[in-house]
């Protein structure tokens, strides 16, 4: 555990990669592909790679790449700040918390439906991750899901798995998550939230598998409590949750949840029928924030303060997006991006597409250990993965889906994920115990993810 605590933070890693990229501009030959516009987006012309004069970068490139990255990613960064601020207003009303607490309370008071309680709540967390990107908020709900799990005769692992695995598969199968799929598709130059039909199928399958795996473990404990991974460790060390802290599920909060539901429907309709992009989507979420404040009768000053606080919480993500984009600026100025793409394309030239897309997923999963931020990883990898998918004859939608899978599934297990490690800390679950339990789950879900990546290659064009 001490090793993990000393692991460099994401920004330090990106700065280190920046130095590496500068060194690579001196070592990798410069080259370029011809590019052309196809359906409004720039794509590489196959077999057009050629060597060009070297343009190695130096110390000045390292000092200026952050500001260049921010300028290049300004549209995405502004989107993150505005949507984060709007969602903060929604969160401050307590509507989402009240709704989830209500479901959990109803479940707890219906012991005859015990077998349906866990999968129902897992599916709820998955839906939250897939639609509006619930992540850090699960640190609050762990104080409810663990006592619920223990009251049903289960262990802390079940209580932690409900929100961690639930939101994990939600992120992996996201269909309207603005912080992952929205950013990734925007960078890949494909319509935001397009391909939602197949992503809904993906989300349903991953969520169903997660529910089955967690419920199967719960039933093992039902039959034999010694099967619990926490059997020799389980102690009631969790801080007692004050029931007075549970927000009341009143009329105004119900209306706010209805507004959220309607906003998601409008979002899906807008991006599919009117090809909405970042401007329109940001406007929709800002409108949702304003409507939520009006329904809740939140004073203007408090609404503005909530918006500012939400935008502040996005500062780390914005920094990572800007710096990650800056790395690509170094590589582009050094003219080595196309050389790297050409080398990978040559190596994968005789490789079947199903192997290539599987390797994309593996790469994203491994990278997530170093950059667990979904938005940051999208900003770093999609400018490379999108044109690479063109060279390999793979749909950009699949490149985005490979990113989603790599980000969502690996975050359940990597010790660099602040949300996962924070949740385990609150739940008093040793990381080695969690790793032993979650590893088979991640392997099974990853196997299913590979199959879902391969399926469109053989059955339909996506």
TrEMBL record:
Protein name: C4-dicarboxylate ABC transporter
Cell compartment(s), UniProt: Cell membrane
GO CC annotation, single: plasma membrane
Keyword Iron-sulfur part of the UniProt annotation: no
Species per Swiss-Prot/TrEMBL record: Siansivirga zeaxanthinifaciens CC-SAMT-1
Domain of life: Bacteria
Keyword set, alphabetical order: Cell membrane, Membrane, Transmembrane, Transmembrane helix
Pfam family, one: DcuC
Chief place where the protein resides: membrane
Transmembrane intervals: 12-33, 70-91, 112-132, 138-157, 164-188, 200-218, 255-275, 281-299, 434-460
UniProt topology in membrane: Multi-pass membrane protein
């Amino acid at each position: 555990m001490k090793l993990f605590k000393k692991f460099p933070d994401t920004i330090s890693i990106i700065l280190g990669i920046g130095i590496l990229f500068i060194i690579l501009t001196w070592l990798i030959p410069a080259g370029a592909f011809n590019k052309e516009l196809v359906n409004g987006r720039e794509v590489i012309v196959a077999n057009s790679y050629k060597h060009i004069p070297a343009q190695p970068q130096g110390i000045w490139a390292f000092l200026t790449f952050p500001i260049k990255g921010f300028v290049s990613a300004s549209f995405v960064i502004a989107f993150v700040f505005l949507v984060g601020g709007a969602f903060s207003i929604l969160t401050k009303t307590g509507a989402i918390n009240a709704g989830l607490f209500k479901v959990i309370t109803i479940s707890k008071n219906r012991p005859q439906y015990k077998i349906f309680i866990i999968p129902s709540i897992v599916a709820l967390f998955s839906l939250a991750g897939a639609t509006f990107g619930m992540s850090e908020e699960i640190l609050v709900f762990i104080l409810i899901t663990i006592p619920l799990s223990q009251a049903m005769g289960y262990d802390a692992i079940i209580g932690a798995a409900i929100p961690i695995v639930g939101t994990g598969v939600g992120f992996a199968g996201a269909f309207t998550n603005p912080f992952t799929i929205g950013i990734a598709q925007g960078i890949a130059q494909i319509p935001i939230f397009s391909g939602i039909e197949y992503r809904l199928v993906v989300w349903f399958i991953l969520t169903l598998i997660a529910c089955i795996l967690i419920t199967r473990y719960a039933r093992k404990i039902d039959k034999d409590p010694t099967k619990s991974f926490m059997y020799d460790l389980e102690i009631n060390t969790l801080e007692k949750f004050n029931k007075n802290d549970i927000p009341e599920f009143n009329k105004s909060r119900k209306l706010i949840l209805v507004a959220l539901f309607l906003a998601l429907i409008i979002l899906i309709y807008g991006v599919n029928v009117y090809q909405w992009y970042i401007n329109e989507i940001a406007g929709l979420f800002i409108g949702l924030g304003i409507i939520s404040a009006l329904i809740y009768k939140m004073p203007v000053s408090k609404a503005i303060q909530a918006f500012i606080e939400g935008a502040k919480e996005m500062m780390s993500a914005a920094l990572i997006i800007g710096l990650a984009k800056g790395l690509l600026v170094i590589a582009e100025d050094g003219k080595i991006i196309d050389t790297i793409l050409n080398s990978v394309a040559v190596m994968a030239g005789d490789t079947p597409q199903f192997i290539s897309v599987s390797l994309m997923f593996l790469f994203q999963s491994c990278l997530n250990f170093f950059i667990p931020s979904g938005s940051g990883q999208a900003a770093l990898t999609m400018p490379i993965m999108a044109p690479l998918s063109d060279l390999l004859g793979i749909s950009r939608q699949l490149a985005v889906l490979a990113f989603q899978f790599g980000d969502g599934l690996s975050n359940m297990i990597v010790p660099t994920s602040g949300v996962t490690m924070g949740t385990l800390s609150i739940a008093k679950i040793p990381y080695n115990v969690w790793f032993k339990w979650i590893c088979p789950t991640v392997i099974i879900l990853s196997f299913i993810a590979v199959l879902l990546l391969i399926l469109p290659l053989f059955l339909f064009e996506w």
